Structures are given as C-alpha cells and as structure tokens.
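Records of this kind hold a single protein each, on a pair of labelled lines. With that in mind, the following record should read easily:
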Amino acid sequence: MKERYSLHAQGIVQGVGFRPFVFNLAERLGLSGWVLNSSAGVFMEIQGDAAACAEFRHILQSQPPPLARIDCLICTQIPILANESGFHIKESATGVRQTLISADMAVCQDCLTDLADPHSRMYRYPFVNCTNCGPRFTIIGDIPYDRANTTMKDFPLCDDCARDFADPHNRRFHAQPIACPACGPHLSFIQAKTGKLIAGDPLQLAASWLRQGKILAVKGLGGYHLACDPFNQEAVCLLRQRKNRYDKPLALMAASLTAAEKICIFNNNEKDLLLSRRRPIVLALRRPQGLAVAEAVAPGNRRLGIFLPYTPMHHLLLQSFDALVMTSGNLSDEPIAWEDEDAFYRLSALADAFLTHNRRIYRRCDDSVAVWAAGAPRLLRRSRGYVPEPLPVADQGDLLALGGQQSNTFCLLRQGQGFVSQHIGDLDDVATYEDFRRQIQDFCRIFEVKPQIVVYDKHPQYVTTRYAQESGLPLLSTQHHHAHLASVLAEYGLKESVLALIFDGTGYGDDGALWGGEVLLGDRSHYTRLAHLAYTPLPGGEMAIRQPWRMAMSYLSAAIPEQELDGVAEICHWPRPWSLLWQATKGGVNAPLSSGMGRLFDAAAAIAGFSGQIRYQGQAAIFLEHLAWQDQSQGAYVLTLTKQGLIDWRPMFQEMLRDKRQGVSPPVMAGRFHRSIANLAVELAICFSRETGVRRLALSGGCWQNLWLLEHVYPRLQKLGFSVYANRAVPVNDGGLALGQAAIGAAYLAGNRE
C-alpha cells in the first residue's frame, strides 16, 4: 500500500547537507517525491510503500546529517500523486524566515584526506570543504542558504565542481561553498610595508617568514589573526609591543593533538573539546618539561589557551610547525579586522606580511574560548563554531536584549529562540560600538525580527543605555545581577526561584552603588537581595579598577586604625601620593561605593604582591589564582555575615595584613584568601537555604571564571544536597548577560499578555 506525506523540518537544516541526505535516503528506500530549501525551513514530500515512508521518518529524526539539528518536524499525510517518478531537489523558495543558520565548522576528516592525496584535484587546496564542514555563518548574506546568497557567488563553478555539485552520490552534492584550484578562492602573500604581492607559494613564504621571527597577519574564517613563532621570545615580545597587549595571554594553534600534548596536559574531556567540530580555544594546564613555549606567550599563567587548525589553510600552514601564536588581528581592545581594506589599513603597522585570500568574509567572528571545569565544558567566549545556533528561552515574544558594556554580546529573541550574537567585545571602543550597531541590524534582517521591546542594563553610563533610548521602541531596564541570575535560569530551562551567588566586579545597583558580591533570591521576573559584601569606596573611581593598590588601601583603611596606614603603605609599596588620594576618598570625592567581589580579589592580590597597572580584565584575580594553586596549606581567613545581611571583610584584611607583616609567602596568602571565599560561598548557601527553603543554587558572574573557586565550591555544594547550576552554554561573565536579559524580557511580555 502506497502512502504520501508532506514534511516540514525546522532547525539547522540548511548548509549542512540536509537536502542531499534526504535525496539519498529517499532513493535508497525507493521513495518518490521532492525536497526544497525555503526561508521557513526544508519542505519535503515522499511517496511509496508505507513501511519505507515510516523508515524514512524514523531515520530523518534519529540519524540526521552530522551538522544538522531538527528542532521541529511536522509530518502530514496527503493524497497520493499518480505517475510520479523519482526523487528531485527543487529550487529554493522564499517565505517567512524560520530557518536557522549553521555555525562555521572545522574541516572534516574526509576533506583532510583529499587535502593530503596527490591524486585528488583538491590536493593541498586551502579551501576544500563539503556538506559536512567549512564556512557557513561567516559567508552567508541571506537565507535560504544558496550559493547566490553567500560570498561564494564571486566564484562561478568550473565543470568539475558543477558535476560534483549536481551528483547526489557525491558528498559535495549541493555543498554551497564548493570550490577547487581551477575556480575557487586563492591565497596571496603580500608585504605589509609596500603592499606588493610577493611571488611564490604563499604557504611556503609564510612558513619561511615565521621561522625568521616575522609577524604575519593571517586571514581565517571570521577575520584576521596575528601569527608568530611561540618558541621565539623576541618575536612574541615584538608582537606584544606592536599589538599594545603586554600581559594578556596569547592563544596557540597547535598542528595536531599530538603536538598540543607536547605543550599542555589534557584529560579525555579536554581532548574531546579540543577535537570537536567547533574547535574552540581550550584553556589547559602547561606540561612540565614540555616544549619551551616563550614565557611572553602567557606571563605568569599556569594555563595556556590552545586550539587546533579548523580550516584547510591552517592545516597546511601548521605542517611546518608544532604550534603558532594565533591571536586576534587587532590592536588591543579594537574589534578584530575582517574586511581586507580595513585589515591592510589597521594591521600593516603590526604585521610584516599578510597571508590572505580573496574569499570575502560577510561578518566577523572571533574564536570561541572554553574550559572543562566542575564536570562540564564551559564557554568563556561564545563565538565561532557556536553562533548563531539559538538557545531556548521559555517564553515567546520578539525582543532585543543589548547585553553589557564589557565582553558584549546581544541577544535577539524570536518565538522562544534566543540568538545570542558572536562576541562583540568592550563597547568603550568606538569601532567596537559601531560594529555592535551593525551586527544588530544584520541579525534583525537575517532572522526577520522586529523587536517588540528593547531590554538593557540599567547602568546610566553604558552605551547600551543610550542605544536603547535612541531605538524608539518600548524599553525594559534590568538590574545587572538579576540578568546574570536569569541567564542561568534560561540556560537550564528553570522557572522556579533559585538562590544565586552572583560574584563579579561591577554592576549598577538599585541604590546607585556598584554591586558585585551578591546573594539573590529570584526567578526571571523578580528578585530579592538577601546579602552582599559591605560597601567600600573606590578611590578615584575607575582608576581603582586599573590600580589594585587603591582597593587595598580602601579595604585596609576600614580594617585597621588610620594611624597604621603609613606603615602599611611602606610594606605594601603604595605610591607616595596615596595619602592625598585617601583624604579625597574620605571626603567622598570621586569615590563611588562598591560591593564588588572582583574588587575584593583586586585588593587581596595587591597585598599578596601584585603591583602595577591592570592591563586586561581580571588580571589581578588571575595572578592571585595562579598563586593559590601553588599553596599546599589548609588555613583560611575570616569573613562574617551580620544580621543585616552584610558580609564583613574587615577580619579577613586584618589577618592578611598580619601575614604580610610576618613574611608569609604570597602563595599561602592567596590560598588562604581563596579558601575564605569558598567557605563563605558554602556558608551563604547553607544559611539562606535554611531561611528560604530553596535548595536550587545558581552561580554566575565573572568571578566564577576562577577555576580554583568553581572547582572547590561546586562539588562541596553538591555533596550538601544542593542542585547547583552554573553557566555552560553562555559565558559566566558579562558575555552571558544578554541571554538573561532576554529571559527577563520574555517573562515580562508573557506577564503582560496574561
């Protein structure tokens, strides 16, 4: 008995070999019908034996193509068609945009085999790809996902590629980025100073220049990298000087897992993360007596950020090296360069030469950063390989959530799907803010969303606040730490109230102070502040965040008699004008109040020995964590909780100062400090779960990037019977704020509808 069905698949079903998969599956099962791409997804009709139709539906849902994700499959039985023969791929159709776009994925093993095969026409071709791998998000200009809507439209197919593209038995069947040396993009090697093309094999030239200690700008999938030899201290220092990035760790791209293991230690979970199709940068422990990576790559850091090649070009380039520094192609704090003209303008003073190509990048996308911690992979930067795959948000409604000022991402909500943008960066930089505006327009267009409201952080000085106010749309402001809490609820699909330990540096509070060491009870709509670190002034405002000694002065001045400050200033090496600054601080001049846990870490780091200026976010805390891992003792300092819900840090700083005076080593001081914060977190959870009866606990905020803290607190809370939730799919730092804001906004819209 024959049957006929109409099927509509929604999800990540374009640019992932879905139509070829459907074609071959139908052919194998002897079914007739057709399949086509549409802005609303993939539509199919199948006809044939009832058992074969049932098998088709089962395989489609249970064994889709490797990169596909079916979120919804609507199947309807329809009348039989007479005289239909064969199965066909129809031309794409337009309509309401519901299709999802695949993220860029690393080159697959089949394509790497072609790359290495002298008998393949793809031999050593830097742009080989198929339906299971290659560029997607960074080359798509519009949907449906057809070549004409990508930057590959610049490269008409040769006869061989056209034949592969049309052959349903070829894995490049309807692979939109298909190309070969005869018809596709090509590499060039250009001297930076003169802008002249240098004759020869671009990859061989690049390898030669890198071995000579030169710095190259290398065009990848989502922008340019700056590359140099990581075993050449002089080259790495020169890169830092030119890039104006003096301390923040630089990422390494290793040639293979074997090469990576010569540099770092990986457990099996970290290996899986490193080898995944998404290819994030993975933070891993340095290997003792491993390859001698230059100290300048990650000064004073026990971990290195390391990742594997994800394009054929990277694989070919790395054949000559165990690893290369591969860091974002920009000056410090600027957005990554991705358009060729802009890259040549901005990077010519940084690089000696360009290894580039003529395939246009439609939108920039930095590398993602991940770490395996507390039993799970956790994203610290969500970008290439993950974006624009949506994250579910419980309530419906179309809205735009703008995120925060630092580590910005935004989120576009459409019908319960949260499209969190690629990493945008710190919006203090004008160019980054302009890119933020451009990417919002791009997302709204490509996902065809007209936001009902704009959700933003209530900090009055954030540029996101200005953007919201100028949008002309209804507005909803959110408190920073409530958004952190809501990001965890959204990620885990929780609607119930949770206790939350939100530890970060700075967030604008309801009372106008700068919050950051908070115990909250709340859901997506409401929250209550149960406790917080006692306030302390920030001497000199923003300068206190850049110079941790100022925070040490602020905390210690409240913990000890004022007449002792002169002696403390001497042993802590505070600069001479400190007393004038302290007088101004006492008078309330440019000294906003803060309850930030990040500021507590800054002060402790300064007392333990961190001196100088903060050059990147969290630098002092990272210094302190690095020391804490060296400590083998068991002691901890004292923090107390008052009946008024204030966490009193004065006893802790009194004890830290005592240790400083007695010559206790910095690692021991750092270890005691970390244990005191871990003990505090556990005690707060116990105290307020008794008070509220809530046993669900959320951990969010940038301080939870501290792996010592997370890995010592998370299991202790679980052993005590808490259900513990910490960000995984979005960053625990401000890169996750937008998802939380979207969840708050969706709940607000749902409440209004009710």
Q: What stands out?
A: The two ends are 48 Å apart (CA to CA). The mean pLDDT is 94. DSSP finds 23 helices and 31 strands in the chain.
